[in-house]
Amino acid sequence: MSTAVGGASGRTTGRIAYVVLALVPVAVVTVFFVLPVGAMLHRGLWPEGRFDPGAVLDVLRRPRTGRVVWFTVWTSTVATTVAVALGLPAAYVLHRLRFPGRSVVRAALLVPFVLPTVVVGLAVRELIAPAGVLGFLGLDGTAVAIIIGLVFFNVAVVIRTVGVAWESLDRRPAEAAAALGATPWQVFRTVTFPALRPAVVSAASVVFLFCATAFGVVLILGGVRYSSVETEIYLLTADLLDLPAAAALSLVQMLAVVLLLVVVGRLRAVADPTVRRSVAPAARPQRRDAPAIVVTVATLAAVALPVLALVAGSFRRDGGWSVDHYRALGGSADGLFQVSVAEALGASLRIAVDATWMSLLLGLVVAFVVTRRVRSRAGRRVRAALDGFFMLPLGVSAVTLGFGFLIALDEPPLDLRSSPLLVPIAQALVALPIVVRTLVPVLAGIDDRQRQAAASLGAGPLRTLLTVDLAVVWRPVLAAAGFAFAVSLGEFGATSFIVRPAEPTLPVVIYRLLGHPGPLNHGTALAASVVLAAVTAAVILVVERLRVPGTGAW
């Protein structure tokens, strides 16, 4: 009897501990995400202190608003289609075939995704500018340039997400179909693709989300001619102070994000035959793999060309080769800033370190909460709701978040506008969904019987955590830290609003340099972008070395 009472008491204590643990990230996200975004929407929907939805409806009926929304939808759709078409063959080659340098190629294709969007836009522009290698195509200042930038930025999402699923597929069904006379295309269409469909559609949904909320890419490549929902929110907020219009577009964007997150969540819930398989060994390339290899090489070249154009441009001055732009990094860029560009890089690194430990600590708690085994239907619904809640920062406008910080966190007890922690907190929220999506598959894959066995042998909760969970999760934790660091290092949307003038981050400095004409400013921006890209690439190479096979999809 006492044993039963003790067991019931232990379960009650465990439930209370779980609730308390879940409340910590809920409180943090509420204060530093829901409150700022809500303040931004409140300022727009209650402009005179009373609810006025008519103003928002008037905004949505504007011809320009319709053009902005349509431009966002169609460019995101085209970019997603192209990214999937290029990413599928590359996912097969990089996750199913074995060849020298595979990890280096995989890391190289991953780098654009974590590059600052300002750097991505600048690299593509250097490639297609009139003086660039592809300048003869006349793409500079066109919608095609924006689509190229979006594909360049997001193809890694398809490669990683689909590749992880493909890496875990059992080869035997495909081999059986081939033995019965099916062609490679028939095998892919009837056996492989049905098993990969959840991963493919999930990747496409995430890519569409990233394309629709891209900021720096459209800002740099679109100029004054093209505007997406994200850049329009920035224009309405920062330049025109038209908060009802910004609030209306933010509402449209958030509704679309929530819908996409629900779709992606349902796709992750689909029974996937790969998750119970062991990781299949990579095979040597065969003749039938030639088309996929050709597409992969073309994708690698397409990713390398903008980066090479960026590097070449940073060394060009007055028709010759020079390192003057790199020497200028130690100066203050013709007095545009209170600090040198090199000092801005140091500030970016310090802020990224703070944002990394914040997002990692919060992400570990979130991952534990959303992977806890629950038996009741209500418990599973609560867990799914929490998972979606913590993913909201993934798609809500970083511009909305940054401006919301200025509105909501400027009065006691949350007067943080002058706090040095404000920028790291904003960047940690941006990195949080990627940290969670990196850790959740690993924690979910731990067999709960191992924890039960440790507990039956007398191990307490802390000892069980150290001996069971930590032994499995330490490498993904380091990989998640690398992703968070790289994403934080390049964050631009929210940071551009809240960064202190005396301590600007490097992406903000690069954008401001581009806004001031002059060959030295432009060249210095290119040199700073190369340095930032090099640091990011080094981090991603380390992350790829830490990746656990079969994990790491977003």
UniProtKB/TrEMBL annotation:
Family per record: Belongs to the binding-protein-dependent transport system permease family.
Domain called ABC transmembrane type-1: residue spans: 69-264, 345-543
Entry keywords, A to Z: Cell inner membrane, Cell membrane, Membrane, Transmembrane, Transmembrane helix, Transport
Annotated TM spans: 16-41, 68-92, 104-124, 144-166, 199-224, 244-269, 290-312, 355-374, 386-409, 421-444, 523-543
The keyword Transport appears for this protein: yes
UniProt superkingdom: Bacteria
Membrane-related topology note: Multi-pass membrane protein
Chief location: membrane
Name of the featured protein: Iron ABC transporter permease
Localisation per UniProt entry: Cell inner membrane; Cell membrane
Species of provenance: Nocardioides aromaticivorans
